[in-house]
Write a structure and sequence with these properties.
The protein is mainly alpha-helical and 421 residues long. 51% of the residues lie in helices and 5% in strands. A hairpin with a 2-residue loop joins strand 5 and strand 6. The longest helix is centred in the first third of the chain and has 20 residues, at 100-119.
């Protein structure tokens, strides 16, 4: 049987058309051409293509290097998967550990690159087909969900938003004029800026300058409201950065999500389910009103979380880095990421019993994605159900109920600690 299988494989290889060599292309080169092909067809959302580019740059190119795509073997793919799952090895290379779900996505992407290369006749076999896909992405996602508590969120918000700034006498003089023009003469920001011979954003900055030596950092102020909105609406980072003032329905207290931000350009959200409307809590509405009142960019088409001085989109990587710095200053765990704010919304809303509507609010195309928050949701009458299935019977020993701290509350034995033995 083994000999027959070997003959069949040799026959298949002999019948297969020879690879069309284009300078013996590497995985990175084939992957880049595949991305171009997918973009041309328009079948993949921009965020997915951006993630593909990151996979190639951060994982595939460093590992496979200049090895031609037709020279990569099953052993090479297995070694790549093992290196991704080896936390100690990644730590020695000063790399962060990868979740099993992340490695599974890398495996799927790599397999897709090989399938594309086969269609283009740059190689004749996909070695990923002989390698098992890593773990269970769904189980890993449930285990690795990380959310902030309200105490941690409050600590981050308390740290974000302020910084020391000393003003010169000339600045304070212009600031007094800005307040006169705005408050007494009721001039719009553009006219105030024209009188001060500066931009509207600078006019707003001067308006808030006071003789005190501390002034709120404008960018930090915007990002503080960004953090709060992310945690209390569940919007993705790109969706938040693409929000315009026209997307805020103050009357209905809702935020409408239609676009995402990629490479500082607004694009349609990655799926129809991502286009949605989410309820806006009173606290979020109150916080959003502050940058609206203080910003020179307050037309319907202006960005809610644009740069305070230019109105342009914020850089996503810079937002992530600044958030992690704020989290460290607040004493939050080292591995916190911006996406944890979205998980915070999911877990808290599920715990409040809103699991049925959570899928729509978070923009999940598949209920399985929302199901990762299911274990935070309270079950109805769960204690009554347990007591009905396992009723108390005559003759059972009645012990003392433990307190929340595990201390035995029996007054007869005040020093006895439950579970100490």
């Amino acid at each position: 049987m083994a000999e027959q299988r070997l003959r069949d494989l040799m026959s298949e290889q002999a019948k297969a058309p020879p690879p069309v060599m284009d300078g013996r292309m590497t995985i990175a080169e084939v992957g880049a051409r595949r991305i171009t092909n997918l973009a041309r067809k328009g079948r993949e959302p921009d965020t997915t293509l951006s993630n593909y580019e990151a996979d190639i740059r951060l994982h595939f190119a460093p590992f496979f290097g200049e090895t031609p795509v037709d020279g990569i073997t099953v052993d090479d793919v297995e070694e790549f998967i093992d290196s991704c799952l080896d936390d100690e090895l990644r730590a020695a290379r000063d790399q962060r550990p990868l979740k099993v779900s992340t490695v599974a996505k890398l495996y799927t992407h790599l397999s897709g690159i090989f399938d594309f290369a086969i269609r283009k006749r740059w190689c004749y076999a996909n070695p990923c087909k002989e390698v098992d896909k890593p773990g269970s992405a769904e189980e890993d996602e449930v285990a690795e969900i990380r959310a902030l508590s309200m105490e941690e969120l409050d600590a981050i918000l308390a740290v974000a938003g302020t910084g020391p700034c000393r003003h010169t006498p000339r600045t304070l003089e212009r600031a007094e004029l800005a307040r006169t023009l705005r408050d007494l003469e009721r001039l719009p920001w553009k006219d105030v800026a024209a009188r001060l011979e500066c931009s509207p954003a600078t006019a707003v900055y001067l308006y808030r300058a006071t003789p005190e030596a501390v002034l709120e950092d404008d960018l930090a102020r915007v990002e503080r409201v960004l953090y709060l909105t992310a945690a209390m609406t569940g919007l993705r980072q790109g969706e938040l950065l693409a929000l315009r003032w026209r997307d805020i329905d103050w009357t209905a207290a809702r935020i409408r999500v239609m676009y995402g931000m990629r490479k500082k350009r607004r694009r349609k959200t990655k799926s129809r389910s991502s286009r949605r409307s989410v309820p806006m809590a009173d606290r979020v509405g109150g916080e959003l009103d502050q940058p609206f009142q203080a910003s020179a960019y307050e037309s319907d088409e202006d960005l809610v979380f644009g740069h305070p001085h230019t109105g342009r989109p914020l850089d996503r990587s810079s937002v992530t880095v600044r958030f992690q710095r704020v989290a460290r200053r607040a004493g939050i765990r080292d591995d916190v990421v911006f996406h944890d704010l979205r998980h915070t919304y999911g877990t808290m809303m599920a715990a409040a019993g809103a699991l049925r509507t959570l899928q729509g609010w978070m923009g999940h195309a598949d209920i399985k994605t929302t199901a990762v928050y299911m274990h935070f949701a309270p079950a109805e009458d769960e204690l009554q159900t347990a007591n009905r299935v396992f009723p108390h019977r005559e003759g059972d020993i009645e012990g003392d109920k433990p307190s929340a701290t595990g201390v035995n509350l029996n007054p007869e034995n005040p020093r006895e600690i439950r579970g100490s033995g």
